[in-house]
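Checklist before submission:
- one chain only
- standard amino acids only
- sequence pasted in full

Submission:
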Amino acid sequence: MSSLIDSVNPWLVAVGLNTILLGLAWIAPKKLLTPAGLFHAWFLAILIWVTLGWQGYAVVMFYFLVGSGVTRIGMAQKEAEGIAEKRSGARGPENVWGSALTGALCALGVGMINSGFIVPSPQFLVPNTSAALSTSPQSLLLLGYIASFSTKLADTTASEVGKAYGKSTFLITTLQPVPRGTEGAVSLEGTLAGIVASVAIAFVGWGVGLINLLGVAWCVLAAFIATNVESVIGATLQSKYTWLTNEVVNIFNTLIGAMAAVLLAWTWTSIIK
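Returned file contents:
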């Protein structure tokens, strides 16, 4: 089946498939995206399919569906407390790119290398003889792609589960108790849920062949690092700068996650080569 899909012009498949999905989402009674968000997601999905094929597409769809699902956990309670996502969780363009800009850039990088538009310099490769330890630019970009979505899904899940079920929430910088929904707050329930989410999507990436099992470990560790850094940013900087919106913080969050995974893989390979 996958060979049949791969043999068809990827642009035709991407535009056709995502136009059908856009139409279904447009008429669906439960809106997961705003009208503008739908068109931005349509463009993103086409980019991912053309550069990474159905494998990369499966990862971003898993993120979107699970992320949208966890956003609606305890929605009535969170709305009553004033800590729910705006628009009842429906994503707009700012949410689409806040979550996926880093992943989209990684995918674009892979596509440009595979097409020959960019030829990586040999000095950026760490020589090794094991395919499982590959540090080619493509493999590192794919790792960054998966890690960015592992990070974002971990962050979304930790936040939404913590707001719905967190029994005790603490400010990450002081460990002082704070109300649920406070920027920079963490909870045991949310943290554990976030780790489970990052493991799940990293295994999706492994299952479709974009990363290996060691890459799964790097993605999970990177997601944990990045989500905690994001909490620190929320607790210390976000309230001080009006431009530091949740969407901008999300871009930093996913970028840190992708970079952390790449650095972990690069360092590990350099040590054991």
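Reviewer check: The longest strand covers residues 169-171.
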